[in-house]
Amino acid sequence: MTDPAFAGQLSALTVALESFEARIISQEVPKEALAALKSAVDDLRLRLWGVLSTGTADDYRAFQERFRLRRAAEICEAIESELGTGLMNPRHEELGRLREAAAALEQRIKHPGRQAGQ
């Protein structure tokens, strides 16, 4: 590793992760924040994996698109299943937002070139 700026960034990342770990162990971090931290770390890990497993920027973009679409489908399938089995509250306040986002996404998939509101 010859790039000092990269080495500095890597060092800062390591320090930040160690700080998060210490705060989690001492229970200073609320459980809600743990989900956001996990998501950020997962995103970083998957981005790095994508860069390492592809040869070009175009390959990386395709990898990201495939990954995001597969993950979104898995999440939707899991939510549908949990609602069907009663594991998730069908009156959860976030379901309205999800319904609106899903409807907008469905329209965008059906009509990819159409502008919003047309």
Keywords:
flat
Give an overview in words:
The chain is mainly α. The chain has 4 helices and no strands. It has helices spanning 4-25, 31-53, 57-85, 95-110. Helix 2 (31-53) packs antiparallel against helix 3 (57-85). The longest helix is centred in the middle third of the chain and has 29 residues, at 57-85. The chain starts with a helix and ends in an 8-residue tail after the last helix. The mean pLDDT is 87.
Biggest sheet architecture: none
* Helix and strand element order: HHHH
**Helix proportion range:** over 70%
Distance between the termini: 52 Å
Per DSSP E runs of 2 or more residues, the count of β-strands stands at 0
Choose one word for the global shape. Answer: flat
Structural class: mainly alpha
Beta-strand portion reads under 5%
Chain-averaged pLDDT = 87
Rg: 19 Å
Topology:
Layout: H1 4-25, H2 31-53, H3 57-85, H4 95-110
Helix pairs in contact: 2-3
Question: Quick gist of this model?
Answer:
The protein is mainly α. The chain has helices spanning 4-25, 31-53, 57-85, 95-110.
